[in-house]
Amino acid sequence: MSQMAIDFSIETEGQKQAFKTEGMLVGETLIFHDDKHQKHTIQFLDNSLRYLRDGDPSFDFTFEENVLHQGIYQVGKQQLTFDIQTHTLKQSHDTLELTYTLKQRDIVVNHSALILKYEKMQEA
């Protein structure tokens, strides 16, 4: 388990959310909270990535290049299912870059680009 410095940015249809925070890397799972106190969990898998966000709204999305996955998005008591088309998924030891499209029945809901930079914090 390592304490990590997180620099997070996501842009969807011209709207951008960006914040810096601290988190934990536990094995292959990065856990952190945003400025709205929502918990983000990112599991780095072999050729894919699972991204969960707790709060309202919450979601459970899996990203994998050239593979269509279904994801759950929940707002209040309403649950929506999306098809997730991953365009790019680039991972390195300290950076994640992801572009994807959410669809419902072949209707494009939005396009998003996510950049996540993370590095181990120095121990005091």
Characterise this structure:
With 124 residues, this protein is mainly β. It has one domain (2-120): Lipocalin. Helix content is 0%, strand content 74%. The protein has no helices and ten strands. It has strands at residues 2-12, 15-26, 29-33, 39-44, 49-54, 58-63, 68-75, 78-91, 95-104, 107-120. The chain has a ten-stranded antiparallel barrel with strand order 1-2-3-4-5-6-7-8-9-10. β8 (78-91) and β9 form a beta hairpin. The radius of gyration is 14 Å and the shape is globular. 15% of the residues are buried. The mean pLDDT is 94.
Short description:
The protein is an all-beta fold and 124 residues long. It has strands spanning 2-12, 15-26, 29-33, 39-44, 49-54, 58-63, 68-75, 78-91, 95-104, 107-120.
CATH architecture: Beta Barrel
Note the main sheet.
10 strands, antiparallel, barrel
Number of strands: 10
Q: Tell me the name of the CATH class.
A: Mainly Beta
Oligomer class: single chain
Q: Features of this protein?
A:
124 residues, mainly beta, Lipocalin, ten-stranded antiparallel beta barrel, 0% helix
Strand and helix layout:
Elements: E1 2-12, E2 15-26, E3 29-33, E4 39-44, E5 49-54, E6 58-63, E7 68-75, E8 78-91, E9 95-104, E10 107-120
